[in-house]
Amino acid sequence: MLRVLLLILSVVAIAHAELCKPDAQNAFKVRLSIKTALGDNAYAWDANEEYLFKAMVAFAMRRYSSKSTTQISNVLLCNVTDRVSFWFVVTDSSKNMTTVPGSEVEAAIRMNRNRINSAFLLSDKTLQFLKITSTLLPPVEPSTPVWLIVFGVVLCLIVAGIVFLVVAGIQQRKKKNKESTESENLEERGEVTVTVENGIPCETLDLKAGHINGVFAADDERFTSL
Amino acid sequence: AMEKSRPLWDNPLQFVFACISYAVGLGNVWRFPYLCQMYGGGGFLIPYFIMLIAEGMPLLYLELAVGQRMRQGSIGAWKIISPYLCGVGVASVVVSFFLSMYYNVINAWAFWYLFHSFQDPLPWATCPLNSNHTGYEEECEKTSSTQYFWYRQTLNISPSLEVSGSVQWEQALCLMLAWLVVYLCILRGTESTGKVVYVTASLPYCVLIIYLIRGLTLHGAVNGLVYMFTPKLEQLSNPKTWISAATQIFFSLGLGFGSLIAFASYNDPSNNCERHAIIVSLINSATSIFASIVTFSIYGFKATFNYESCINKVILLLMNAFDLEEGSLTADNLNEMKDYLMATHPQEYAQLLPQLKNCAVQGTGLAFIVYSEAIKNMEVPQLYSVLYFFMLLMLGIGSMLGNTAAILTPLTDSRVIAARFPKEVISGVVCFINCVIGLIFTMEAGNYWFDIFNDYAATLSLLLIVLVETIAVCYIYGLRR
């Protein structure tokens, strides 16, 4: 009896070994980088963690195919290294000695990747299923590009500034023209004006409301007659 | 009768600030550090200062004196010295025109990067995803995310000069904005320019000081500084060192463009321009050295960061290939482990060999790529990014004000044009023409055109102009006067 049991067990073990080995059909390699992800809070990889992994894969298969036939014993792990990395296959309990096709396993893992990652406190990068590409999260993009908004604000400010300056310049020029015609009239009437010093135009003197500056007007011989 | 008065700077400080704002530009921030590192590190300062005293200060004094004395832009000033020399003035204006055409594109790029700095994460920090979201864009994978952002998302560069491609509307918008800003500053002549240069001259120094503090505290900054400042005195015997020092002083001060003549022409004739010439050239050189300290701490940080991430990549590769325990391979024992693995698993190691590149320090890059790459690895990158690109903008706009002054002053001086149109219209027309021509640089092949202009527009012509200027003032006008 015992011998038969041993024989069956060894056959099962050998069969399992044949199903699960590196580069076997429908087998996937998994690589974990626990220390990189968790640093000081890293846990050690032992048999309990392996049990959890088998449970998560079984869970993923159940959710994907929605038939509750996959058991934890269907998930086989082998070649565990120090890295930590190992290979796994999912056997089919209905058909003897066969593995579930790789495409199904891949789809199941992809669908539940998030749950599997969180069970181990890892991410897509630190819990890698080689050959199973993960769907990357696109970066959050707002509906209107931010740069256009900032551009619009700056553009409005600059255009407002330009318009303000141009309008102010036009107004100043109109005032200057009016004053220059006034000062021409004053000249014809013989009012005295001082010639331009650098940067001091004549108009400012006209603004003194036409007062005759006694210092200059007193000495009439200094001015040539018009 | 009244004589039309020439607009003046409100005070001599505005004039000094305008010259500094014009002279201190992008060349100080990244070209000088690059030359310093290429031609002997700390030893490069010797030919630099000799050239500064031998050619920089005298030529600067010459241009400022000519402008101040003749009180005209470059064409008018040379015409007064001798009617045959007005060609020199025209040449200066033409060169300034070429320069303003392509220089404002740099401001457009600075605006682009500035506007994109208000995002989290920075758009050049990560690669975009490919179409089915399984990985990153292929082009981006091959280079780095900052290079991808520069070449693809900013320039959208075409494979070659012949493939012109279409005008990039985003770049065109930024270029238009850059020209509007320049127009706003020069609109009222010295009245507006004088106020603006207070900001454009002083703000870059504030940002540089912030960056100095930040840069020196970065990990690996000291490596950069040591690398740059260790003098390699054997380079002094290389003639290229002296030529580079001479050309750097030359272009850094902006001699021969006519801008300095234009600025000085708005001066009070009693202004002491000799003292100002010395001050401006000394400040320019001091800024170069200051900026190179900042730049090289950033370079050192970037190089150290790249080196360390390269080492980490090699470690990861080896760990994955040989299923070694995490933490068994570190930067310190990497070399011994490599030898050990080569001995124990020769075949697999040989397969890996092409991917195990030797992590060497990379060379220089463009101001936009290098700094943006360094910034994305700092904390609070948005703040530093905004500061840096705002500083680039201030530097660029300061230089543009000088360039446009060089073009506009002769135009407003000439009675033919100035009598008919007010100066707002002339400035507007010049800005508009430049903007339209500048659209060439926003096309897909625009960067190639930019390189052509950058290398050839100003170099030889300026040397010729300044040579003629020197001969003219010394012999034709007479050194005594």
Protein architecture, described:
The complex is a heterodimer of chains A (226) and B (481). With 226 residues, chain A is α+β, with helices and mostly antiparallel strands. Chain A is built from eight helices and four strands; from the N terminus they run αβααββααβααα. Chain A is 49% helix and 8% strand. About 2% of the residues of chain A have low confidence. In chain A, helix 3 crosses helix 4. Chain B is mostly helical and 481 residues long. Chain B has one domain: Hydantoin permease. Chain B is 72% helix and 0% strand. In chain B, helix 4 runs antiparallel to helix 5, helix 8 packs across helix 17 and helix 9 runs antiparallel to helix 17. Chain B starts with 11 loop residues before the first helix and ends with a helix. Classes of the chains: A alpha+beta (226), B mainly alpha (481). Chains A and B meet through helix 2 and helix 6 of A and helix 5 and helix 8 of B.
Topology:
The complex is a heterodimer of chains A (226) and B (481).
Chain A: H1 2-19, E1 28-32, H2 34-38, H3 47-65, E2 75-78, E3 85-90, H4 102-111, H5 113-119, E4 127-129, H6 146-188, H7 203-206, H8 214-217
Antiparallel strand pairs in A: 1-3, 1-4, 2-3
Helix pairs in contact in A: 3-4
Chain B: H1 12-23, H2 26-38, H3 45-70, H4 74-81, H5 86-115, H6 138-142, H7 145-154, H8 169-186, H9 190-216, H10 221-229, H11 239-253, H12 259-265, H13 273-322, H14 334-344, H15 346-352, H16 367-376, H17 381-413, H18 415-420, H19 423-438, H20 446-456, H21 459-478
Helix pairs in contact in B: 1-9, 1-12, 1-13, 1-17, 2-11, 2-13, 3-11, 3-12, 3-13, 3-21, 4-5, 5-8, 5-17, 5-19, 5-21, 7-16, 8-17, 8-19, 9-13, 9-17, 10-13, 12-17, 13-16, 14-15, 16-17, 17-19
Write a concise synopsis of the structure shown.
The complex is a heterodimer of chains A (226) and B (481). With 226 residues, chain A is an alpha+beta fold.
